[in-house]
Specification:
The chain is built from 16 helices and ten strands. With about 425 residues, it is an alpha/beta fold. It has two domains: about 270 residues, 3-Layer(aba) Sandwich (Rossmann fold); about 120 residues, no CATH class. The strands form two sheets. Strands 1-9-10-6-5-2-3-4 form an eight-stranded mixed beta sheet, sandwiched between helices. Strands 7-8 form a two-stranded antiparallel ribbon. Helix 1 runs antiparallel to helix 3, helix 3 crosses helix 4 and helix 9 packs across helix 10. The longest helix is centred in the first third of the chain and has 23 residues. The protein is globular, with a radius of gyration of 22 Å. Bound molecules: S-adenosylmethionine. The site of S-adenosylmethionine has 23 residues, from loops.
Amino acid sequence: MSEPDDRPARPQKARRSLTHVGGEVERGGSPAVSEALAYALDVAPSGDVEAEPERADVHGFHVYPARMHPTTASRLVRSFAPEGGLVLDPFCGSGTVAIEAVAAGRRAIATDLNPLAVRLTKLKLRPFSEQERALIVARAEQVRAFADERRKQRAGATRRYPQADVDLFEPHVLLELDSLRAAIMDSEPTVKGALELVLSSLLVKVSRQRGDTSDRTETRRLAAGYTAKLFVRKTEELVARLAAFAARCPSPRRNPRVLVDDATLLEKVDEGSVDAIVTSPPYVATYDYADHHEMRSRWLGLRTDHFFRGEVGSRRAYADLEPHEARASWVGELRKMLGAMSRVLTPGGVAIVLMADSAVQNVALRADELVAEACRDVAGLRPVARASQVRPHFHGPTMAAFRSVPRKEHALLLARPRASKGGDGGL
Ligand SMILES: C[S@@+](CC[C@H](N)C(=O)[O-])C[C@H]1O[C@@H](n2cnc3c(N)ncnc32)[C@H](O)[C@@H]1O
């Protein structure tokens, strides 16, 4: 997975991603399969986005914690999903796998329990015409003009804001955001969804919050009118990214299904219908996606109660557990998601799960071991191969967990055999 970032459409500077700092890739299980997994994990240490078109376009719009590296997603889809086959990402997040599946001419379903993830993935994959893209930019200019006018008139807010927003934004920034939001609400449906996500993409940047996954605050001195100006710039950037993605998609383009669904149930995906699952579930005890997106969801009017209840592996759920309890709980959650994956896979289908090791207190939770353990109790899913690469661990309080054996990111391939025999622990 790459570090959360927010690249411009034509970046000037190389950005480092976590995928670039791994070392040798170690392999296990089927040699041919593990070689393809290793190739997908071992993304070249290049910041040259021009040389990697799959990194340049829609992926970079809107930050999202722990995105998969697009090159990894692209290689996994092309290696393991048959042409014309159906690819599922049940933890789609910002849509990386579905985007690469569409670019590779595969059919795709993307699901996530986080409504913001679903909105974002839908937007990135929506085939806007050139006229629609032009309309989005034109409306953004009008939205900005409305906000500028209200600022000059010193107009008050159009509605009451909760204390959380009053604390998070400078008063003049909150007023500008309020005007932008009010004007967006008045735009036509084709444009509204896109502009709402543009607003979402800049909320943290103009707030006192340090970053998407940080609770720390800092003072930012933003000039009057800056937020509205940034809004137009981000809209132009989105439209350029959408056009770049459209240009690298095969014609005709297959439109994916993008839905809210719980990955431990997969109620909206037909049984036995999926050829390849390519996915990166949360790293246990590492992020709180529902909390990280609480403010954005509030601004977009998204209901997150289901997500708060159903998020797997969240840091808040694991924070007070002893390491042995955390391990047992995570194996239980893995069993549920692997069970759902097994049910929707076609016989002969494969699931590639990307997951890094985590730690609770000073004890490492090794993702490869825990997935293999969970898999033993899942009918019809068998570990076939893995590739693992050392990745740095930045979390001070749990650093000791990786002192003797370093933290790794794993690509684990599980298969649903044609004649199902149950798990045999082939890793
Ligand atoms: C590591 S992120 C996926 C990132 C994605 N691969 C990308 O490139 O943007 C894990 C995702 O799991 C989602 N998630 C957590 N619990 C879930 C659940 N029970 N069902 C579906 N999605 C869930 C989170 O909302 C988050 O988007």
